[in-house]
Amino acid sequence: MNQKKILVVDDDLVVLKSLSFKLKAKGYDVYTATDGSQAVNTVRTQKPDLIILDLTFPPQVAGVAWDGFVIMDWLKRIDEAKNVPVIVVTGGDPAKYETRAKAAGATAFFHKPIDNEELLGIVQKTLESGDAPSKPA
User: Where along the chain do its domains lie?
Assistant: First the structure.
């Protein structure tokens, strides 16, 4: 059986480890990234079937100022990620980010703390149905 690959992108190591553990327990191959450049590199090398993405990252001293919206924009330009569904998971204000995230192509939006069972259900449903992110108008 070909295991589905999931990339989890979050700067919070507790979230990365927790989600990785739960996803691996469900039989998924899990890759992690703590910033945008790692996410882009991992997408190019591993070609994930789904991406779970945080929106907020600490500012970098040099280089690109990554946030989840910049990462989603980059992913749309990479052949390996063009039709990969993105589930946004953030501690940011849902009133401020949910509509914007879905307009940017997110398949689903979760606010931290995450209901893990609900997230795992959406992951499974998304992978089974092959849902790609909706294209922004």
Answer: 5-129
**Taking the model in full, what pTM does it have?**
0.89
Q: Do strands 50-53 and 29-33 pair parallel, antiparallel, or not at all (unpaired)? A: unpaired
Task: Using the structure block, give the residue that is written with the tokens 């204000």.
Answer: 93
Other C-beta atoms within 10 Å of 80: how many? 15
Give me 26's structure tokens. Answer: 């469900």
Helices 116-129 and 13-25, packing angle to 10 deg: 60
Of the listed ranges 17-21, 65-69, 107-111, the least confidently predicted one is 65-69
128 phi and psi angles, rounded to 5 deg: -70, -40
Architecture of domain 5-129: 3-Layer(aba) Sandwich (3.40)
